[in-house]
Amino acid sequence: MSPQTMASFQELMKELKVEAVKRPDLQLVQGVPLPSPSCETWDQLCSFQARPDDLLIATYPKAGTTWMQEIIDMIHNNANLEKCRRAPTYVRVPFIELVPPKPIPSGLTQVQEMPSPRTIKTHFPFQLVPKSFWEQKCKAVYVARNAKDVLVSYYYFIKMNHGLPTSGTWEEHFDAFLTGNVAWGSWFDHVKGWWEAKDKHQILYIFFEDLKEDLKREIKKVAEFLEKDLKEEVINKIALHTSFDMMKDNPMANYTTLPSFIFDQSVSPFMRKGSVGDWKNHFTVAQNETFDEVYALKMAGGPLKFRTEL
Protein backbone atom coordinates (compact mmCIF):
# COMPACT_ATOMS: atom_id res chain seq x y z
CA MET A 1 0.00 0.00 0.00
CA SER A 2 1.32 3.42 -0.90
CA PRO A 3 1.62 6.24 1.70
CA GLN A 4 -1.11 8.08 -0.21
CA THR A 5 -3.50 5.14 0.01
CA MET A 6 -2.75 4.69 3.70
CA ALA A 7 -3.39 8.38 4.35
CA SER A 8 -6.71 8.08 2.51
CA PHE A 9 -7.66 5.07 4.64
CA GLN A 10 -6.85 7.00 7.83
CA GLU A 11 -9.02 9.89 6.67
CA LEU A 12 -11.91 7.51 6.09
CA MET A 13 -11.42 6.14 9.60
CA LYS A 14 -11.77 9.65 11.01
CA GLU A 15 -15.11 10.01 9.22
CA LEU A 16 -16.51 6.93 10.90
CA LYS A 17 -19.16 7.86 13.45
CA VAL A 18 -19.74 6.20 16.81
CA GLU A 19 -23.43 5.74 16.05
CA ALA A 20 -22.58 3.86 12.85
CA VAL A 21 -21.07 0.98 14.83
CA LYS A 22 -23.81 -1.34 16.03
CA ARG A 23 -23.32 -4.97 16.93
CA PRO A 24 -24.65 -7.16 14.12
CA ASP A 25 -26.84 -10.22 14.46
CA LEU A 26 -25.91 -13.78 13.61
CA GLN A 27 -27.38 -15.13 10.39
CA LEU A 28 -26.94 -18.51 8.74
CA VAL A 29 -25.16 -19.16 5.45
CA GLN A 30 -25.27 -22.84 4.47
CA GLY A 31 -25.88 -23.63 8.13
CA VAL A 32 -22.91 -21.59 9.39
CA PRO A 33 -23.63 -18.56 11.62
CA LEU A 34 -21.91 -15.41 10.38
CA PRO A 35 -22.14 -11.71 11.28
CA SER A 36 -25.15 -10.38 9.35
CA PRO A 37 -23.21 -7.88 7.15
CA SER A 38 -21.12 -10.75 5.74
CA CYS A 39 -24.31 -12.64 4.92
CA GLU A 40 -25.66 -9.63 3.02
CA THR A 41 -22.65 -9.71 0.68
CA TRP A 42 -22.65 -13.49 0.28
CA ASP A 43 -23.35 -13.45 -3.46
CA GLN A 44 -20.35 -11.18 -4.13
CA LEU A 45 -18.13 -13.30 -1.90
CA CYS A 46 -19.19 -16.50 -3.65
CA SER A 47 -18.36 -15.06 -7.06
CA PHE A 48 -14.98 -13.63 -5.99
CA GLN A 49 -12.30 -14.35 -8.57
CA ALA A 50 -9.00 -15.40 -7.04
CA ARG A 51 -5.68 -15.06 -8.86
CA PRO A 52 -3.18 -17.93 -9.06
CA ASP A 53 -0.63 -16.09 -6.90
CA ASP A 54 -3.11 -15.23 -4.13
CA LEU A 55 -2.22 -16.56 -0.69
CA LEU A 56 -4.97 -17.28 1.81
CA ILE A 57 -4.47 -17.17 5.59
CA ALA A 58 -7.33 -19.07 7.20
CA THR A 59 -8.15 -19.58 10.87
CA TYR A 60 -10.99 -19.96 13.29
CA PRO A 61 -11.21 -16.67 15.23
CA LYS A 62 -8.54 -16.17 17.92
CA ALA A 63 -6.34 -19.01 16.71
CA GLY A 64 -3.27 -16.92 15.82
CA THR A 65 -4.53 -15.06 12.77
CA THR A 66 -2.66 -11.79 13.29
CA TRP A 67 0.45 -13.70 14.30
CA MET A 68 0.49 -15.60 11.00
CA GLN A 69 -0.32 -12.43 9.04
CA GLU A 70 2.78 -10.78 10.51
CA ILE A 71 4.96 -13.85 9.99
CA ILE A 72 3.98 -14.14 6.34
CA ASP A 73 4.30 -10.42 5.64
CA MET A 74 7.80 -10.50 7.12
CA ILE A 75 8.71 -13.58 5.07
CA HIS A 76 7.52 -11.85 1.89
CA ASN A 77 9.52 -8.72 2.76
CA ASN A 78 12.67 -10.49 4.00
CA ALA A 79 12.13 -9.04 7.50
CA ASN A 80 12.35 -5.44 6.26
CA LEU A 81 10.77 -3.66 9.23
CA GLU A 82 10.02 -0.47 7.34
CA LYS A 83 8.04 -2.35 4.70
CA CYS A 84 6.23 -4.43 7.31
CA ARG A 85 5.15 -1.27 9.15
CA ARG A 86 3.80 0.41 6.03
CA ALA A 87 0.22 -0.04 7.28
CA PRO A 88 -1.79 -1.88 9.95
CA THR A 89 -2.20 -5.62 9.59
CA TYR A 90 -5.84 -5.29 8.58
CA VAL A 91 -4.81 -3.11 5.61
CA ARG A 92 -1.80 -5.16 4.52
CA VAL A 93 -3.78 -8.41 4.67
CA PRO A 94 -7.47 -7.64 4.12
CA PHE A 95 -10.17 -9.70 5.80
CA ILE A 96 -12.20 -10.74 2.76
CA GLU A 97 -15.60 -11.29 4.42
CA LEU A 98 -15.41 -8.21 6.68
CA VAL A 99 -18.09 -5.58 6.04
CA PRO A 100 -17.32 -2.61 8.31
CA PRO A 101 -19.53 0.46 8.71
CA LYS A 102 -19.36 3.00 5.89
CA PRO A 103 -17.30 4.82 4.72
CA ILE A 104 -14.68 2.12 5.47
CA PRO A 105 -14.36 -0.15 2.41
CA SER A 106 -15.25 -3.80 2.78
CA GLY A 107 -12.56 -6.44 2.88
CA LEU A 108 -13.74 -7.66 -0.51
CA THR A 109 -13.30 -4.18 -2.01
CA GLN A 110 -9.84 -3.87 -0.48
CA VAL A 111 -8.80 -7.23 -1.91
CA GLN A 112 -10.15 -6.42 -5.37
CA GLU A 113 -8.19 -3.16 -5.45
CA MET A 114 -4.89 -4.75 -4.35
CA PRO A 115 -2.10 -5.44 -6.83
CA SER A 116 -0.75 -8.97 -7.05
CA PRO A 117 0.56 -10.88 -5.24
CA ARG A 118 -2.18 -10.61 -2.61
CA THR A 119 -2.29 -12.09 0.88
CA ILE A 120 -5.87 -12.46 2.09
CA LYS A 121 -7.36 -13.38 5.45
CA THR A 122 -10.51 -15.39 6.14
CA HIS A 123 -12.28 -17.07 9.05
CA PHE A 124 -14.51 -19.07 6.72
CA PRO A 125 -14.81 -22.81 7.30
CA PHE A 126 -13.43 -24.62 4.29
CA GLN A 127 -16.78 -25.16 2.58
CA LEU A 128 -17.54 -21.41 2.47
CA VAL A 129 -14.24 -20.32 0.91
CA PRO A 130 -14.84 -18.96 -2.62
CA LYS A 131 -14.28 -21.87 -5.01
CA SER A 132 -12.02 -19.81 -7.28
CA PHE A 133 -9.18 -20.13 -4.73
CA TRP A 134 -9.07 -23.88 -5.40
CA GLU A 135 -9.79 -23.55 -9.12
CA GLN A 136 -6.75 -21.26 -9.37
CA LYS A 137 -4.71 -23.69 -7.23
CA CYS A 138 -3.92 -21.01 -4.65
CA LYS A 139 -1.90 -21.75 -1.56
CA ALA A 140 -3.40 -21.43 1.92
CA VAL A 141 -1.93 -21.45 5.42
CA TYR A 142 -4.35 -22.63 8.10
CA VAL A 143 -3.60 -22.04 11.79
CA ALA A 144 -5.38 -24.22 14.35
CA ARG A 145 -5.39 -23.62 18.12
CA ASN A 146 -6.70 -25.83 20.91
CA ALA A 147 -10.40 -25.27 21.56
CA LYS A 148 -10.15 -24.47 25.27
CA ASP A 149 -7.84 -21.51 24.77
CA VAL A 150 -9.80 -20.37 21.71
CA LEU A 151 -13.01 -20.39 23.75
CA VAL A 152 -11.48 -18.09 26.38
CA SER A 153 -9.76 -15.75 23.92
CA TYR A 154 -12.90 -15.50 21.78
CA TYR A 155 -14.94 -14.53 24.85
CA TYR A 156 -12.74 -11.52 25.57
CA PHE A 157 -12.49 -10.61 21.89
CA ILE A 158 -16.28 -10.53 21.48
CA LYS A 159 -16.58 -8.32 24.56
CA MET A 160 -14.19 -5.71 23.16
CA ASN A 161 -15.07 -5.96 19.45
CA HIS A 162 -18.28 -4.08 18.67
CA GLY A 163 -18.25 -5.46 15.15
CA LEU A 164 -19.23 -8.93 16.39
CA PRO A 165 -22.54 -10.30 17.67
CA THR A 166 -22.55 -10.64 21.44
CA SER A 167 -22.26 -14.09 22.99
CA GLY A 168 -23.46 -13.05 26.43
CA THR A 169 -22.03 -13.86 29.85
CA TRP A 170 -19.13 -16.24 30.34
CA GLU A 171 -21.56 -19.09 31.01
CA GLU A 172 -23.66 -18.22 27.95
CA HIS A 173 -20.56 -17.91 25.77
CA PHE A 174 -19.28 -21.28 27.01
CA ASP A 175 -22.51 -22.97 25.91
CA ALA A 176 -22.69 -21.03 22.62
CA PHE A 177 -19.13 -22.03 21.71
CA LEU A 178 -19.75 -25.72 22.39
CA THR A 179 -22.90 -25.70 20.23
CA GLY A 180 -21.27 -23.63 17.46
CA ASN A 181 -23.69 -20.74 17.96
CA VAL A 182 -21.01 -18.06 17.55
CA ALA A 183 -19.72 -16.21 14.50
CA TRP A 184 -18.06 -18.60 12.03
CA GLY A 185 -19.73 -21.54 13.68
CA SER A 186 -18.39 -24.71 15.22
CA TRP A 187 -14.68 -24.85 16.09
CA PHE A 188 -14.91 -28.63 15.77
CA ASP A 189 -16.25 -28.52 12.22
CA HIS A 190 -13.80 -25.75 11.28
CA VAL A 191 -10.58 -27.50 12.28
CA LYS A 192 -11.74 -30.85 10.90
CA GLY A 193 -12.92 -29.39 7.60
CA TRP A 194 -9.61 -27.70 6.87
CA TRP A 195 -7.68 -30.78 8.01
CA GLU A 196 -9.60 -33.00 5.59
CA ALA A 197 -8.98 -30.52 2.75
CA LYS A 198 -5.23 -30.18 3.27
CA ASP A 199 -4.30 -33.23 1.21
CA LYS A 200 -6.50 -32.19 -1.72
CA HIS A 201 -5.20 -28.65 -2.06
CA GLN A 202 -2.05 -26.64 -1.39
CA ILE A 203 -2.80 -26.09 2.30
CA LEU A 204 -0.20 -25.87 5.06
CA TYR A 205 -1.80 -26.80 8.41
CA ILE A 206 0.01 -25.14 11.33
CA PHE A 207 -0.69 -25.48 15.06
CA PHE A 208 -0.64 -22.46 17.37
CA GLU A 209 0.97 -24.58 20.08
CA ASP A 210 3.82 -25.52 17.72
CA LEU A 211 4.41 -21.82 17.02
CA LYS A 212 4.65 -21.20 20.77
CA GLU A 213 6.96 -24.15 21.27
CA ASP A 214 9.48 -23.37 18.52
CA LEU A 215 8.72 -20.25 16.50
CA LYS A 216 11.81 -20.39 14.28
CA ARG A 217 11.09 -23.99 13.30
CA GLU A 218 7.55 -23.07 12.23
CA ILE A 219 8.68 -19.92 10.39
CA LYS A 220 11.05 -22.09 8.36
CA LYS A 221 8.15 -24.44 7.60
CA VAL A 222 6.00 -21.56 6.33
CA ALA A 223 8.89 -20.06 4.32
CA GLU A 224 9.54 -23.42 2.66
CA PHE A 225 5.85 -23.76 1.79
CA LEU A 226 5.99 -20.28 0.20
CA GLU A 227 9.17 -21.26 -1.66
CA LYS A 228 11.17 -18.52 0.06
CA ASP A 229 14.80 -19.33 0.81
CA LEU A 230 15.63 -17.21 3.85
CA LYS A 231 18.98 -16.82 5.57
CA GLU A 232 19.24 -17.78 9.24
CA GLU A 233 19.65 -14.16 10.33
CA VAL A 234 16.39 -13.29 8.53
CA ILE A 235 14.58 -16.16 10.28
CA ASN A 236 15.96 -14.92 13.61
CA LYS A 237 14.78 -11.38 12.89
CA ILE A 238 11.31 -12.56 11.95
CA ALA A 239 11.08 -14.64 15.14
CA LEU A 240 12.14 -11.65 17.23
CA HIS A 241 9.68 -9.21 15.70
CA THR A 242 6.76 -11.64 15.67
CA SER A 243 7.16 -12.53 19.33
CA PHE A 244 4.11 -11.68 21.45
CA ASP A 245 5.82 -8.86 23.35
CA MET A 246 7.11 -7.18 20.19
CA MET A 247 3.73 -7.43 18.45
CA LYS A 248 1.89 -6.18 21.52
CA ASP A 249 3.96 -2.98 21.33
CA ASN A 250 3.67 -2.63 17.55
CA PRO A 251 0.81 -0.27 16.57
CA MET A 252 0.79 -1.80 13.09
CA ALA A 253 -0.09 -5.19 14.64
CA ASN A 254 -1.93 -4.51 17.91
CA TYR A 255 -5.04 -2.82 16.42
CA THR A 256 -4.61 0.36 18.47
CA THR A 257 -5.09 2.23 15.18
CA LEU A 258 -8.81 1.37 15.36
CA PRO A 259 -11.05 3.74 17.36
CA SER A 260 -12.23 2.54 20.76
CA PHE A 261 -15.87 2.49 19.67
CA ILE A 262 -14.91 -0.39 17.36
CA PHE A 263 -12.23 -2.17 19.40
CA ASP A 264 -12.55 -1.14 23.05
CA GLN A 265 -9.16 -2.18 24.39
CA SER A 266 -10.05 -0.82 27.83
CA VAL A 267 -12.37 -3.84 28.09
CA SER A 268 -9.70 -6.26 26.90
CA PRO A 269 -6.53 -5.70 24.88
CA PHE A 270 -6.52 -7.19 21.39
CA MET A 271 -3.14 -8.73 22.21
CA ARG A 272 -4.26 -10.21 25.52
CA LYS A 273 -2.04 -13.16 26.51
CA GLY A 274 -1.20 -15.25 23.46
CA SER A 275 -0.42 -18.20 25.71
CA VAL A 276 -1.21 -21.89 25.95
CA GLY A 277 -3.18 -23.04 28.98
CA ASP A 278 -4.98 -19.83 30.02
CA TRP A 279 -8.23 -21.80 29.96
CA LYS A 280 -7.24 -23.18 33.38
CA ASN A 281 -7.82 -19.72 34.83
CA HIS A 282 -11.41 -19.64 33.56
CA PHE A 283 -12.98 -23.11 33.37
CA THR A 284 -14.74 -24.41 36.46
CA VAL A 285 -14.30 -28.10 37.26
CA ALA A 286 -17.84 -28.74 36.01
CA GLN A 287 -17.23 -26.77 32.79
CA ASN A 288 -14.03 -28.68 32.12
CA GLU A 289 -15.86 -31.99 32.55
CA THR A 290 -18.65 -30.85 30.23
CA PHE A 291 -16.16 -29.60 27.67
CA ASP A 292 -14.17 -32.84 27.70
CA GLU A 293 -17.35 -34.89 27.17
CA VAL A 294 -18.42 -32.80 24.17
CA TYR A 295 -14.87 -32.77 22.77
CA ALA A 296 -14.54 -36.55 23.01
CA LEU A 297 -17.83 -36.99 21.18
CA LYS A 298 -17.15 -34.48 18.38
CA MET A 299 -13.49 -35.41 17.80
CA ALA A 300 -13.88 -39.18 18.26
CA GLY A 301 -11.77 -41.35 16.02
CA GLY A 302 -10.17 -38.47 14.17
CA PRO A 303 -6.44 -37.93 13.58
CA LEU A 304 -6.36 -34.36 14.90
CA LYS A 305 -4.55 -33.98 18.22
CA PHE A 306 -4.32 -30.71 20.14
CA ARG A 307 -2.22 -29.76 23.13
CA THR A 308 -3.94 -27.73 25.85
CA GLU A 309 -0.68 -27.06 27.73
CA LEU A 310 3.01 -26.97 26.95
TrEMBL record:
Domain Sulfotransferase: 52-301
Organism: Latimeria chalumnae
GO (cellular component) term, any one: cytoplasm
Keywords assigned: Transferase
Protein EC: 2.8.2.-
InterPro entries: P-loop_NTPase, Sulfotransferase_dom
Similarity section: Belongs to the sulfotransferase 1 family.
UniProt-recorded name of the protein: Sulfotransferase
Leading EC class: transferase
MF (Gene Ontology): sulfotransferase activity
